[in-house]
From TrEMBL:
Presence of keyword Membrane: yes
SUPFAM superfamilies: Nudix
Cofactors demanded by this protein: Mg(2+)
Gene Ontology molecular-function annotations: metal ion binding; pyrophosphatase activity
InterPro entries reported in the protein's UniProt record: DDP-like_NUDIX (IPR047198), NUDIX_hydrolase-like_dom_sf (IPR015797), NUDIX_hydrolase_dom (IPR000086)
TM stretches of this protein: 147-168
PROSITE patterns with a match to the protein in the record: NUDIX
A GO CC term assigned to this protein in UniProt: cytoplasm
Keyword Hydrolase recorded: yes
Alphabetically ordered keywords of this record: Hydrolase, Magnesium, Membrane, Metal-binding, Transmembrane, Transmembrane helix
Source organism per UniProt: Rhodothermus marinus
Name of the protein in its database record: NUDIX hydrolase
Domain Nudix hydrolase residues, every copy: 2-129
Amino acid sequence: MGSKRQAGVLPFRWHNGQLEVLLVTSRTVGRWVIPKGNVGKKTAQEAASKEAFEEAGLRGRIDPEPLGCYLHGRPGDQRWVDVYLMEVTEELPEWPEQAERQRQWMPLAKAQQQVYEDGLRALLARLPAELERRTSGRALGPVASRALVIGLLLLALALAFGGTYYLARLLQKPEVRQRLKQLEQQDPTSSLQYLQRFPQLT
């Protein structure tokens, strides 16, 4: 069994509110597959992006976290393919392997029926939940996420010690707001420790 791993890309888009993925045909038997190829001296993400362009004429954002992997190839010559998600931003009318492959956008359910490998089918089944997880993790962004944590800590502190009115007045002070802004860039819990210095809250 071959030991070299390959990198593959799963292109996706939202079309009329429906999740779609793009598959291409293999050059040998014309099966529906995802763009993939050897990594070589590139990073896995670079290789995935390259295959998306060469095999499907796509450009987009590659998520650095792999969706997963699956086993591809014939018995005795199988390789693991690490699959990366690509949110497509551009679909080129011409591409290097245009004469050798077909490409087609299709609903996720249809794509699961079309692919040959069980491992790839399983990855397709995971896609909606994985997109939801990754999107919710990026929705607020790191700064907003810190602010949310701090807000929850402040609310818990006020409720625990009955200092809601004083806390509101305290947060109106420019020096307090400035200090909290500095602390939130470091560690949200340090903001709580800072506020606990005020006796009216504790």
